[in-house]
Structure formats: structure tokens, C-alpha cells
Design brief:
Elements lengths: L14 H10 L5 H8 L3 H13 L4 E4 L3 E4 L8 H7 L2 H4 L2 E10 L2 H6 L8 E9 L18 E9 L9 H15 L5 E4 L3 E6 L2 E14 L5 E9 L5 H4 L9 H4 L7 H22 L5 H6 L6 E6 L5 E8 L5 E5 L2 E5 L5 E7 L1
Parallel strand pairs: 3-4
Antiparallel strand pairs: 1-2, 4-5, 5-9, 6-7, 7-8, 8-9, 10-11, 10-14, 11-12, 12-13
Helix pairs in contact: 1-3, 2-3, 4-10, 7-10
């Protein structure tokens, strides 16, 4: 009877993840990594280099081996789901964690039209993360929160106006609930922290959608929140920024708990928005408005204009007092820069 060799073990689909999990467990020499993975020292070094390029700070210490320069943990879908209130879990159809994607928003937009239950996708890394107006969003591996949620709505795309404000309000309130009370919302979709050195960006929200003018529609809410910015990525950012490690003090949450807090706030907020629109959120927005009473510069397709920010209108437009008159500006038309206090 012929004999056959035993089947070989399947190849590790994400060897960098396996290597990173080993480094999370503690320092380890290149020899041990090579032996445990069945690879050469050169192959291990290449994997280490790929992790460094993705934003993971790994140091090599004589007599110790490779080690993480800062503590790091990977996202756990089961832990996030378990941390949600029961009513929020009931509003989910799926919750997944990917290793690396172009963007979590883009991945969800490629899927079929969703129903009223939410689909959630998180990623350890985004290779094509973007913000409003197509700006690049630095997305180093394992450092920040990259989370998107998609949900279906009836009544057409016109009903979804103001949804980025709803997502922003709920996200800021969630962060406050984790003990970080300095975060505010800068119209229309930036999470910021104001200090003596000005306003620094903590995170951003990008809402995209599609569907019929008067029929079923989808909204994809994407959020990126800086948790622990590696130095290499920090050097690439061309605007004032901060992260939870810098502004949270001893209250810095894990990424799992941050994800659960955001989802625990978003899911009921979306249900409320579906029933009543933006109206229930206007007062909540006013409490966390980073622009309230500040002098702002409005950049339109014409010449920039200056005025005093005065909250939001019923449809979510930014109200600005200019030469004694109140004017409204919509997010798709302008960008806003805070220039000082009123």
C-alpha cells in the first residue's frame, strides 16, 4: 500500500501578525523567532522591517533581542462585542476586525446594500485612509482606532443630511464617558482638543453613502481616532495634532474599550436620528462645539470671509455672524479655520 507524506501545515496568512503577537508577549531573540517560525534569520529580519514600515516601533537590544518600544495590543472582536450593552449588540449584524485594508469605509461600500442592522469593520491598519476632501489619514499599524459602520435607511439620501454631526456628537460623548473631557467637535467632523497652543486634531469622521433618491439608502460612518502616534508617522502630519496618550493622562483607554464606547454611543444615536432627524442633537452639539463664539475664516470658492461662529442651523449648516448678519454654510461648500476667540 503506497505511503504518502503527512499534509503540510497551511501557510500563515498573516505572518506579520503572528510575529507581532510574539513580540507583544515579550522580548525575543532573532534565533528564537527563526526557530519558532521555521524561517531564516534573514526572513525574520524582513518581517521585522515590514512591521517597522507599517508604524510599529520595534527596537533591537543587545543580549535581549527584538522588543516593542511601547506597549501594544491587538484588537479583539469578541472583547469589543462583549463590552457593548445588550441593546447595542442587538443592533449589529456583524462586527469584524481586519489586519490591513485600504480603508474600512471603502471595504463596506463594496458590500451589498445593508438593512437596518449595522455592519461594523475595524482594521489594525489602513493603507489608503482618507479624511474630508480626500486628505490622507495617517494609519499606522496597531496604533489608532480605524472603525467604520454601515447601516441602511429608508426614505432616500436627502434624509441623511447632518449625519456626520450626529456621529461626531456621539463619538465625543463616548470619549467623555471614558474620562477624557477635553475633547470637542469642530464643525463639521473633526474631534479636537483646545489648549494654550491652539486647537489640535484628535480624530476625524467621514460619512459616505449611496442609494436611491427616495428609496433605500445606505450610510457608512468612518472614524479615525489617534490613540498612540508613532514618531515616524507624527513627522508626516502637516497640521496640529494630538492623541489620547497625550491628552488622556492616566485615563487612556484600550482600543477595544474605545471601540466599544464609540459603537455603544453610535448605535442608539443612529436609531434616534432615524426616528427624529437632527433636532435632538442640536443641544448636545452646542455643549461640545469647538467653534462657538470663535472668530472663523470661511474658505469658499470665492474669496475667504471672516465672522463669528454661532452654532448650527436646523439642517446642520454652520451659522456665522458676518457684519451683523447670520449666514449659513454647508459642509460640502466650505472649509473652516478657527482664527481666535471672539
Amino acid at each position: 500500500m503506497p505511503s504518502f507524506p503527512p499534509p503540510s501545515a497551511p501557510a500563515d496568512p498573516t505572518p506579520e501578525r503572528t510575529l507581532l503577537q510574539r513580540l507583544i508577549a515579550g522580548p525575543v531573540s532573532g534565533d528564537v523567532l527563526a526557530r519558532e517560525s521555521g524561517q531564516t534569520r534573514a526572513a525574520v529580519w524582513k518581517r521585522i522591517s515590514l512591521l517597522r514600515e507599517a508604524g510599529v516601533p520595534i527596537v533591537a537590544r543587545p543580549g535581549v533581542g527584538y522588543a516593542l518600544a511601547q506597549p501594544l495590543s491587538l484588537l479583539d472582536a469578541d472583547a469589543i462585542r462583549a463590552a457593548l450593552p445588550a441593546d447595542a449588540r442587538a443592533r449589529l449584524s456583524s462586527l469584524e476586525v481586519a489586519w490591513s485594508v485600504d480603508s474600512t469605509n471603502a471595504q463596506l461600500l463594496r458590500r451589498p446594500m445593508p438593512g437596518a442592522l449595522a455592519q461594523v469593520l475595524l482594521a489594525e491598519r489602513q493603507t489608503g485612509g482618507r479624511g474630508r476632501r480626500g486628505r490622507e489619514w495617517q494609519s499606522p499599524l496597531g496604533a489608532h482606532l480605524y472603525l467604520s459602520l454601515q447601516r441602511g435607511f429608508e426614505g432616500g439620501l436627502a434624509r441623511l443630511g447632518g449625519l456626520s454631526l450626529v456621529a461626531g456628537v456621539a463619538a465625543v460623548e463616548a470619549i467623555h464617558g471614558l474620562g477624557i473631557g477635553a475633547v470637542r467637535l469642530k464643525w463639521p467632523n473633526d474631534l479636537v482638543v483646545a489648549g494654550a497652543d491652539g486647537v489640535r486634531k484628535l480624530g476625524g469622521i467621514l460619512v459616505e453613502g449611496g442609494g436611491e433618491h427616495a428609496g433605500p439608502a445606505r450610510a457608512v460612518l468612518g472614524i479615525g481616532i489617534n490613540v498612540r502616534m508613532p514618531e515616524a508617522q507624527a513627522a508626516l502630519i502637516d497640521q496640529p495634532w494630538t492623541d489620547l496618550t497625550r491628552c488622556g493622562g492616566s485615563a487612556v483607554p484600550t482600543r477595544d474599550s474605545l471601540a466599544a464606547a464609540v459603537l455603544g454611543a453610535w448605535l442608539p444615536a443612529l436609531d434616534l436620528f432615524d426616528r427624529e432627524g437632527l433636532a435632538p442633537f442640536r443641544e448636545r452639539y452646542a455643549r461640545i462645539d469647538a467653534l462657538s463664539g470663535a472668530e472663523v475664516e470661511i474658505h469658499t470658492e470665492a474669496a475667504p470671509v471672516r465672522g463669528i461662529a454661532a452654532g448650527i442651523a436646523d439642517d446642520g449648516a454652520l451659522q456665522v455672524e458676518i457684519d451683523g448678519l447670520l449666514r449659513a454654510f454647508h459642509a460640502g461648500e466650505v472649509s473652516v479655520r478657527r482664527t481666535g476667540a471672539a
